[in-house]
Write a structure and sequence with these properties.
Layout: E1 2-5, E2 12-15, H1 18-26, H2 31-41, H3 47-52, E3 58-61, E4 64-69, E5 78-81, H4 84-95, H5 111-129, H6 139-152, H7 157-164, H8 169-177, H9 182-189
Antiparallel strand pairs: 1-2, 3-4, 4-5
């Protein structure tokens, strides 16, 4: 886990490693919270975007599974890749509910409720792991980690911009990239014998 203080506000930006993301995704016992966390950490959705996702928005395309975001930030349409395991989880959850396929998948009234989930789970994870860095985790850090981990996997930054719905490279670099993933840092350290 990497932490950096925000430049113009109190608090920290947090970047989770892949292992930490897996720990977070496995932590909730309910499917709805697991899906919500996955939409942020695996598809880069903002809280309000995750609230609008319906089963119809999850599609298998020529490039693989995607989630369509009909009205992202600035009411702009975008598509983001989605792991096939998440697509299956969403389809399965949708098959057990009594709602139309175009109705939002998450049955919560507000983004505040989703932030409450992460506040609850981050406290529990800090206690379970002994790492107080978890206490600084916000919903937006899942999106931040998603983007940074894509960059660390050498995904073209312009494609990350497109998937994440950012307007320009400068905004992305200033607010999201900010650090290298723990995996990238470890690979770079291994190049130096004395580190």
């Amino acid at each position: 886990m990497n932490l950096r203080e925000h430049d113009n506000q109190d608090g920290f930006k947090v970047w989770l490693s892949e292992e930490e993301i897996q720990t977070l995704l496995a932590h909730p016992t309910d499917t709805q919270t697991q899906i919500a966390y996955g939409l942020a950490a695996r598809a880069g959705l903002r809280t309000f975007e995750a609230l609008t996702v319906s089963p119809n928005d999850v599609q298998d395309t020529d490039m693989g599974w995607i989630v369509r975001v009909p009205e992202g930030k600035g009411e702009k349409y975008r598509e983001s890749p989605l792991p096939s395991s998440m697509a299956v989880q969403i389809q399965t959850a949708a098959s057990y509910r009594d709602a139309p396929a175009d109705a939002p998948l998450l049955d919560v009234g507000s983004t505040r409720a989703m932030r409450n989930w992460i506040e609850r789970d981050r406290e529990q994870l800090a206690e379970e792991t002994g790492d107080d860095g978890w206490r600084r985790l916000s919903w937006h850090d899942l999106r931040r980690s998603w983007a940074t981990n894509l960059k660390g996997a050498d995904v073209d930054p312009l494609l990350v911009l497109d998937w994440g719905g950012w307007e320009d490279l400068e905004t992305f670099l200033e607010h999201y990239r900010g650090t290298f993933s723990p995996e990238v840092q470890k690979r770079q350290r291994e190049k130096v014998e004395w580190l």
